[in-house]
Design a protein that fits this description.
42% of the residues lie in helices and 31% in strands. The protein is built from 3 helices and 7 strands. The chain has helices at residues 8-34, 40-64, 131-141, and strands at 2-4, 67-71, 74-79, 84-89, 93-103, 106-115, 120-124. The protein has a 4-stranded antiparallel sheet with strand order 1-2-3-4, with helices on one face. The longest helix is centred in the N-terminal third of the chain and has 27 residues, at 8-34. The chain is elongated, with a radius of gyration of 20 Å. 11% of the residues are buried.
Length: 150
């Protein structure tokens, strides 16, 4: 059985960035409340901007935190933050596609799988361990469901 789980290093790095953003937001609000070193326009633009970026990063981290297991002709997805676990047969796959993008001389891969109940999930090689084994397994067990890209 192949278990794909979030990479700890990725989530550690994202958590550090999130803490830096939240620290910056606290600094901005404290500076505004006490000393006001900058103009009002700076605070009105920077505080909401840092808040929105922090929330987007937090939501991305929460949505991407999933565990996928594949083996014995089944795919099990577990979303611990939502408390949802679903098991699908490989026959329930409507389509799957692997996208590859080269950026900064590194290859980014992402696989999307759609099931017959219209549920779908994505996973990438930068965020999950055992990604390559997962794609090889899908290629062997469900090659007819793969979406061909040009």
């Amino acid at each position: 059985m192949i278990h794909c789980k979030p990479k700890k290093a990725t989530y550690f790095s994202l958590s550090i960035v999130l803490l830096i953003l939240l620290g910056g937001l606290v600094y901005l609000l404290n500076d505004f409340a006490n000393t006001r070193n900058y103009g009002l326009i700076f605070y009105l633009i920077s505080a909401p901007l840092v808040t929105v970026v922090s929330l987007m990063l937090l939501v991305k981290m929460m949505v991407g935190y999933k565990f996928i297991s594949v083996g014995k002709e089944k795919i099990t997805t577990r979303l611990p933050l939502r408390g949802i676990t679903k098991t699908y047969d490989l026959k329930q796959i409507l389509a799957w596609e692997e996208e590859k993008v080269i950026a900064n001389k590194k290859e980014f891969k992402q696989t999307t799988i759609v099931f017959d109940d219209k549920a779908s999930f994505t996973m990438s090689n930068h965020e999950h361990v055992n990604y390559e084994d997962f794609v090889v397994y899908l290629g062997k067990k469900a090659p007819s469901k793969r979406v061909k890209t040009n």
